Amino acid sequence: MKRPSSIENLEIRIKQLERQYEEQVADIKLSASGLVESVSPMQILKSTLRTVVNTPGLKGNLVDTAVGLGAGFLGKKLLVNKSGGIFRKLTGSALQLILTNFVSKKLNQVRDDNSQA
């Protein structure tokens, strides 16, 4: 049996390195496409929304805010006529803001008191 010459060894090694190079290029292309997909604006928005939704206590705060806004809006509608002047509209908006903050804070206090009891 004849020993392979150094030229044959070099050719074998070159073919192995070419295959390795092709595999690495394919892996890099796959990684790059995954990176481009993960950095797309839609994916960033989705991950941000997932983080916000899974934040503890956020749902309660949203409910408190919504109830406060509703109470403020209702209070403004009940106390201020549609045909009011600029001063009356400003007063109504200030009243709405005060009611919204008041109701929202009270709901937080009630929730905190219930969780401590």
Task: Please give a quick description of this structure.
85% of the residues lie in helices and 0% in strands. The protein has four helices and no strands. The chain has helices at residues 6-38, 41-53, 58-79, 86-116.
Q: Portion of residues in helices? A: over 70%
The 3D shape can be described as rod-shaped
Number of domains: 2
On the 0 to 100 scale, the average pLDDT is: 79
Low-confidence stretches: none
SSE pattern, N- to C-terminal: HHHH
Quantity of strands, as a count: 0
Summarize the topology.
Blueprint: H1 6-38, H2 41-53, H3 58-79, H4 86-116
Helix pairs in contact: 3-4
Give a description of the structure:
- The radius of gyration is 33 Å and the shape is rod-shaped.
- The protein has two domains: 1-54; 57-112.
- It has helices at 6-38, 41-53, 58-79, 86-116.
- Helix 3 runs antiparallel to helix 4.
- It has four helices and no strands.
- It is mainly α.
- The mean pLDDT is 79.
Name a few traits of the molecule.
single chain; 117 residues; mainly alpha; 4 helices; 85% helix; 0% strand; rod-shaped
